Amino acid sequence: MIESDARPSGALALRLRDIAGRLSAMPIAYAATAFFLVCAAILRPNLLQPFLLMLILRQAAPLGIAVIGQSICIRLLSLDLSFGGVAMMASYLLTSGVLPYSEPVLIGLSVLLGLLVGATNAYFIAVRRASSVIVTLAMVLILGGIATALSQFRAPGDAPEMLRYIGQTRIGIVPVAVLVWIGVLVPMALFLRYSVFGRYVDAIGSNPNAAWTSGIPYVKVIFVAHILSSLFAVFSAFMLVGFVGFGSLSIGSDLALNSLAAVILGGVTFGSGKGGVLGPAVAAFMLMFVFNLLTSFGLGEPGKQMAQGAIIALAAIAYSARSTRI
Amino acid sequence: MIALPLRRFGRSGLGIVSIGLPIVIFITLSFRAENFLTATNIANVNSQITALLIVALGQLFVALIGGIDISVGSVISLCSALIVTVDPAFAVPVVLVTAVIVGLINGTGVAIFKVHPLIMTLGTMTFFQGMSLLLLSGAGGAVPPALIAMSKSTVGWLPVSFFWSVGALVAAGVLLNKTPFGLRIYAIGSSEQSAAFSGIRVTASRIGCYVICSLCGAIAAIYLTGRIATGDPTMGRPFSLDSVTAIALGGVLLSGGVGGVTAAALGTITLGLMTNGMNILGVSPFFREAVTGVLLLLAVSLQKRKVIGI
């Protein structure tokens, strides 16, 4: 080996390794989205028309909003699987006509529901120290059971006018729902990056015990996170109800699983405190795009479920394998 | 002075609540519901809880090592769909092999790749639920007559479900209390690190627990499919959370190391009696689901953990 030769090539190798490291640290969702877009370009070019892409973006908007809350929970080593129950209950409140109030009041009541569910989840998780998965799944049983039992007496009706506007109107080619999504995403990203709350989330996520010992208000942070998460679930239900145009008990049933998949694919990992808001948002779009692609290949609901399950398990394994190696 | 009984009860998970609750419910129901204390209803309760008992025993093995398996419900659904789709002669072996494979997948993800058990089994739960719907789109199909006979007949005046329950209890009890494997499970559940330092092959034992849990799901599926005499690709849906609720009610600690066959059985009986009671008292099945949710919340919040998080 000649020394003068080794130095520049060593520096180059270092730089290459640095680039490779950064690339491999990027959320799986980016590469996967590119991969599926290329797949579609070859196999189903029709899917790439701007009009259809906008439709898929609109489909992804409710998921994208739910994902913001889920990603905060997951960074805090918690998990919120109660989205389905919250969405069902909100849909019942909004469309059953059982409460004789005006639209804004009904919307306000749904927001209140979100606050209540989030606070209850947080109480059991932070104060009683119960497992977040069990708590939020129990919440689905409770909310779903009540909503289903009540719906037997009254069929769901039409969605409030205001929500149908958000769900169905477009400005130019861009659906209003997508604008709302961006309108929520950007402030949340800034909030998580620059606020004290955001720093707390980072600290608790990277080491809950250290954060606890150093006096970071763990209980309060969990409360805020879970209340935000349930509120986002309610907003997401607003969009879904407006999108469909009438109430339904199956609204938002796969919101929780999809949001979990999107968060994992978007590069937010359990307990690392790492992860932005953009990765999960891209992953939300990617999931909807993949489901549309699968549908175009004639795969029905079972195929979709298998894809969801495989994505969650494989992405979790991939991240674990990567983090244990380093 | 008090240390001695505490220590004796310590590992079993039994406590005043887990022993007292089923007794209180039993007495209340005997007074409040007329049809409760009839031989037919008691036999009914037994047949209803047999499947849950088998699944809860499987869940117990996973809980003892500090894990959780919420894919067991999908295993039941998948096995039920398989029983009516494959050649009747191979139904049972196919189902058992499938369960072992699912258990190996879960165990590998959790024990080797260190994925959190909830995430891992949530993934497999969704995957295998989809797969069972792919095999069988709705309830239907012909169940081999031998399986129906195995689940529905009576021996003397005892329903055969009684023997399924006793068989499952004895098998789980022997495996936990009389074999080195059982001892290892308790050791791992108490402290994985100490267990590893003492030369226990932790990874293999943990994978074993997930395989046992899936196998219990398959056995429950054989029993249930025979009992309702038709395949059902969504049959197992309630079992994942019900089995967790049952063992938590019985006092099994979900963080590992504490619990036993008696605790799992008592928790299952508690849950079974409550369901049956609400059934007799005419409560809507959907409200019953909500009540199960509340019970689950109460049961887990009674066990305050040291760990923060999932």
Topology:
The complex is a heterodimer of chains A (326) and B (310).
Chain A: H1 3-25, H2 28-43, H3 50-75, H4 83-95, H5 103-127, H6 132-151, H7 161-168, E1 170-171, E2 174-175, H8 176-194, H9 196-206, H10 208-213, H11 218-244, H12 255-265, H13 278-296, H14 301-325
Antiparallel strand pairs in A: 1-2
Chain B: H1 3-10, H2 16-32, H3 39-64, H4 72-85, H5 91-112, H6 117-135, H7 145-152, E1 154-155, E2 158-159, H8 160-177, H9 180-190, H10 192-197, H11 202-228, H12 239-249, H13 261-280, H14 285-302
Antiparallel strand pairs in B: 1-2
- Beta-strand portion of chain A reads under 5%
Distance between the termini of chain B: 37 Å
Report the CATH architecture of chain B.
Orthogonal Bundle
**Strand residue content of chain B:** under 5%
CATH architecture verdict of chain A: Orthogonal Bundle
Rounded average pLDDT of chain B? 88
Rg from alpha-carbon coordinates of chain B: 19 Å
Low-confidence stretches of chain A: 1-6
CATH topology of chain A: ABC transporter involved in vitamin B12 uptake, BtuC
Number of strands of chain A: 2
The backbone outline of chain B, from C-alpha atoms, is globular
Mean pLDDT of chain A: 85
Order of helices and strands of chain B: HHHHHHHEEHHHHHHH
H and E order of chain A: HHHHHHHEEHHHHHHH
Largest sheet of chain B: 2 strands, antiparallel
Number of domains of chain A: 1
CATH class of chain B: Mainly Alpha
Structure summary, number of beta strands of chain B: 2
Helix content of chain A: over 70%
Supply the helix-strand structural class of chain A.
Answer: mainly alpha
Helical element count of chain A? 14
Short description:
The complex is a heterodimer of chains A (326) and B (310). With 326 residues, chain A is an all-alpha fold. Chain A has helices at residues 3-25, 28-43, 50-75, 83-95, 103-127, 132-151, 161-168, 176-194, 196-206, 208-213, 218-244, 255-265, 278-296, 301-325, and strands at 170-171, 174-175.
